[in-house]
Amino acid sequence: MGNVNTFGMAVLIGLVGIFCILDSRLLGRLNFEQPLITSAIVGLLLGNPTAGLASGATIELMSMGLVQVGAAVPPDMCMAGIIATAFAILTSADPQTAVAIAVPIAVLGQLLGVLFRTVIAGLGHAADAAIDEGEFKKVTNYHIVWGTVLYSLMYFIPIFLAIYLGTGFVQNLVDAIPAWFTNGLDFAAKLLTAYGLALLLSMMMNKGMMAFFLVGFFVCAYGGLSVTAISIFGVLVAIILTTLRFGKDSRPALGSDEDHDSLEDDD
After folding, report:
1. Which of 3, 40, 159, 260 is most buried, by CB atoms within 10 Å?
2. First to last CA, the chain
3. Contact yes or no for 71/195 (Cβ under 8 A)
């Protein structure tokens, strides 16, 4: 494959990254960020949809346990799925090789995500200042234009460089990051995770919900059950409670005071 073809391929895959990352930020949420979808798109563009789906399904399984809570930044499986699938197709590798490629890319995407969120927070402060001054066009530009441009560049540049320069570039870039810097970003990611959980708990701090939360927590901690098992039991308990609360037996009987319409007195 020549340099011209490699350059064009890198640009094309970079544009796929822009489209997928803007899904939940500008286009709504149509699940284009999921590795299975992104890999399928890459496979179609590279003329091998079967390999794209196979790589995407394998990477999707690896990413199912990653949940973004609050402001936490998990490993970036969207970027990893795009780059790893492209490499797997271009080098005729198997899906397991795509997963091995995806791991360092996901870590790099996580580090870039923490840095980017730190930088883009400045746009929020600038927008607040513009609102105070009544310059609403600036506010629109900060949120819609500059935010979109920065998000696009955050995805396009690493995807383009990875495809154009090869997987070795990504691995060398990850290895070149100083340990103190990586440790600092890791601490920031854990802190953001704890903050996100605290925000969720603040909405659950009432007598009705906290009992269920504590029961699930202690059963998971001391019962040796997996998160999947706890989730299944949680769904069953929710169904039982919903049936008891909103079932047929809970509806008011005909002719009772709850079924009385005060407007009928006017007739």
Report:
1. 159
2. 86
3. yes
